[in-house]
Amino acid sequence: MTGGRFVRGALLGAAAMYFFDPARGRSRRALTRDRTLGLVRRTGRRASRVWRGVRAHLYGWAQKARHLREQPKPAPDDWTLAQKVESQIFRDPKVPKGQINVNAEQGVVYLRGEVPTNDLVEELERATRRVQGVVDVHNLLHLPGEPVPGGRA
Fold first, then answer.
1. Predicted TM-score (pTM) of this structure
2. 82 and 36 in one domain?
3. Rg (CA), the chain
């Protein structure tokens, strides 16, 4: 117990001698003050940058949570709906864009054309049904060499 007090007293005495030395004490105190204030400023700036980043992340998470689902919008006109469906289903590079025709009439989307696989026929119909504003889908897609569904092209 007394050993710890002695060490603390010795350190306090050495610091007092260092800072209150008649020859250099004033400059040592000024230098220590300047360095301490600089450290405080740098730490504050770093904390501010960190906090700004945390706030930005929190804001982004709040926006994601707020916009998890697409908000209902008024039904688009037929041309706009057909364009919207095309932009959704033609994103996939395996979809033959030049072989599929998309039309819309009063919210009902007609898919016509030739595709290479049955899986693609079903996938395109599912993707079309997911587009907001689509009331129904008439899938007239067919495989090469098969007759056109419904007897028309």
1. 0.53
2. no
3. 37
